[in-house]
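Morning!

As promised:
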Amino acid sequence: MSSGTRIVLLGRQGAGKGTQCLRLSRHYVVPHISTGDMLRAAVREDSALGRSVEKIIGGGGLVSDELIIEVVRERLKKADTQQRGYILDGFPRTVVQAEALDLIAQDLPLLGVVDLVVPRDLVLSRLSARRVCRDCGANYTATGVVRSPWSCDTCGGDVVLRDDDTPDAINLRLDLYESQTAPLISFYGQTQRLHEVDGVGSQDEVFDRITEVIDRAGGGS
Ligand code: AMP
């Protein structure tokens, strides 16, 4: 079995998963696999996958389990993942996906699941101010100052409001999180893989809490 960090980061949209995953990916030198970023890239490329999911993503719904499981299955076959492990962000989102991950990743089993806990009213205000780099996925917070065009400090890409960060889509996504993703908490709790981490605090504080949990679970090797 390969060594490396193999974790899933769970948490409501706007809990800070994207930001923390980028930092964790650099810290542990492990691929950050965001299914949302992969699907948005497919939409930008106007691929067959992108065309099939564009409307669903824009409306804040979930794409089918079958389709997203296939996307992740293919991604986990790549050499970087086989050698270094993975930090999964946005997958699994349903118990069906979690069961599929256990099968797909039999040779690279999950070391732990971190649930980043942030209350709903706090994520609502964060999401309305969130801006994201179209190219590398870096997150920014709109402060009211207009920077036009707004370029990413990391890669120079366009920094934009996501189509699904409108109030209606945000509420739908949060409702879906409660109904479909929250059961994952029980699923991973029952198999002793769940670690709850308080996601309220500075980025550094939250990062330290997460790395402590991952190191304890043996994922920092
Ligand atoms: P995210 O960036 O993780 O919020 O994902 C953006 C959108 O991509 C979601 O609102 C869904 O439409 C779709 N998506 C990403 N990951 C999944 C998944 N695991 N299952 C179903 N839909 C997903």
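The mean pLDDT is 91.

Hope this helps with the figure draft.
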